[in-house]
Structures are given as C-alpha cells and as structure tokens.
Design goal:
6-stranded mixed sheet; Arc Repressor Mutant, subunit A
Length: 270
C-alpha cells in the first residue's frame, strides 16, 4: 500500500465493461499499467474478473481495500464503483461478464479469489480468441466452462474493511495512504474530532475489528505485497515492526494458514 494513493496517475477504464451483448457473454481485455499508476474510479454494467499476471494490484471500493497478488484475481460485481492501483508495472488480463450471465450472487462487494491453474489457462485462452464478432458455438461453450470455474473459485482473506462513518473514514483512508503512520490512537482520534473510545467503538461496529486488529491485518496485507516482490520474511518482519521474524511468521500463519514463503506458491495450486 503505497503512500499518497490519491496522487497516483489515473488511466481511463476499458470500454469493454460497458458493452451490453448477451450473445458475447464473456469478453476479454488486456492492458499494461505502468508502475505507480492506476485506473480512475469507475463502474460498469458487466461484472469483472481482474488478474495481473505478475505484481500486485490494490483495488479500492467503498473505502475498503483488496490486495491482489498474481496468484489471485479480484471479482468486481456489476455496477460496483472501484479503482485500481499498482506500485509496479503490471500486465492485466480482464474478463468482463454480461449481466445476462449473473455469477457469484453471494458476493455483494469485491472479493479476492484463489486462482486455479485451470482458471489461469481459461483466461489466457479467451484472450487469444477473436471476440469482436458473433460467438460461434465453440466459443460459447468455452464461456460456459469459464463461468463454471469462476463460480467455484474460493475466496481469500485479503481484504481490509473501511467503514462508513465520516470520522472512521478519515482515519482508515489516512492509514491506507500512510501505512507507516506511528502516532497512537488518541492522537489519531483528535485529528478525527472524536475520542479514542468512540473511534475504537466505530472500528468494532463498522469493520468487525478492533483498532489493533485492523492495524494487524493492514500489516499482513502489506506483507503479502512485499512477498510478491520477492522480499524475505526477515526483511519484511523488521520493516513492518514485528519483534522478530518468528513473530511475523506466527502472525502470518495464524491469518493465512501457511508460512509466508509458502503462501504465494500454495495459493496457486488448484
């Protein structure tokens, strides 16, 4: 989560997400996004499966953040306002699903999904197809397989909730833009024109986490980003303020069920 996200250069969204055409139920669109850039806030009638073949994407919607390493993709429901950022150059491979093919009805907001080997192969296969005209039966069958696989992808806990109360939003947005913020909660509460007790209550009510738990999750999502860049567990542990590499490994395993250096590898298995 880089600093000063609001200042990240923004590119316009793809027009593909706005095409209504049930005869072309799933469309592919690829793009390269330069380092330290993003896609401007937008929404489109087609749902979207967003995957970067390398690097890490950061998707923001409704003041919430999803961290998306290359071992994963992010599901964006139809008409969900969102924006995308990345600290490094990324090659994005999108799938856009027509509203006539509603998928993942239980996901009312964005969701990070574990990618299977089959799903990655299907994404790349559709990107090699000509989808500019009417789909032949063979291509419609491919879309059926893609839709079935999207429905089956499990969700990953790579989400940082943001809340809705203006006082809480002021704090969470600041912390997302400045993840190295070291000031204690009472000082942050003064800046939000509220009390520490009220701010702690807002964190629990609106994010389901205490302030301490929210910051701990933020640190772990930062760790996932750093792991995707090839940093060692020891480097990450000391950079993010853990007492020791073993303390970092224990916290990571408790959150994700696997040690840090195995996380990205294990998440790419079907």
């Amino acid at each position: 989560m880089s600093k000063h996200i609001a200042q990240t250069p923004k590119h316009p969204p793809s027009a593909t997400g706005y095409l209504h055409d049930p005869a072309r139920p799933i469309l592919a669109h690829g793009r390269t996004m330069p380092a330290q850039s993003g896609i401007a806030p937008h929404h489109h009638p087609r749902a979207q499966l967003l995957w970067a073949t390398a690097g890490v994407l950061r998707v923001t919607a409704s003041a919430e953040t999803w961290i998306v390493p290359a071992s994963h993709a992010v599901w964006v429901p139809a008409d969900m306002p969102h924006s995308v950022q990345s600290d490094t150059e990324v090659h994005i491979r999108n799938l856009y699903i027509d509203p006539s093919r509603p998928l993942r009805a239980d996901n009312h907001s964005c969701a990070v999904l574990n990618l299977s080997d089959l799903m990655r192969a299907l994404i790349l296969r559709l990107h090699r197809e000509d989808t500019s005209g009417a789909f032949p039966p063979r291509l419609l069958r491919l879309c059926d397989v893609i839709a079935d696989e999207i429905e089956a992808l499990p969700q990953a806990p790579l989400h940082l909730p943001g809340g809705r109360d203006p006082r809480l939003l002021r704090i969470t947005r600041h912390l997302i833009n400045h993840p190295d913020e070291a000031r204690p909660l009472p000082e942050l509460a003064r800046n939000a024109a509220t009390s520490p007790r009220s701010l702690e209550r807002l964190f629990r009510q609106e994010t389901g986490l205490s302030y301490r738990q929210w910051r701990a999750r933020q640190r772990l999502l930062l760790a996932v980003e750093r792991l995707s860049r090839g940093e060692s567990s020891a480097t990450i542990a000391y950079a993010l303020g853990y007492r020791s590499p073993s303390a970092f490994t224990a916290a990571f395993r408790a959150a994700f069920g696997t040690p840090p250096q195995s996380f990205l590898k294990s998440e790419t298995t079907p």
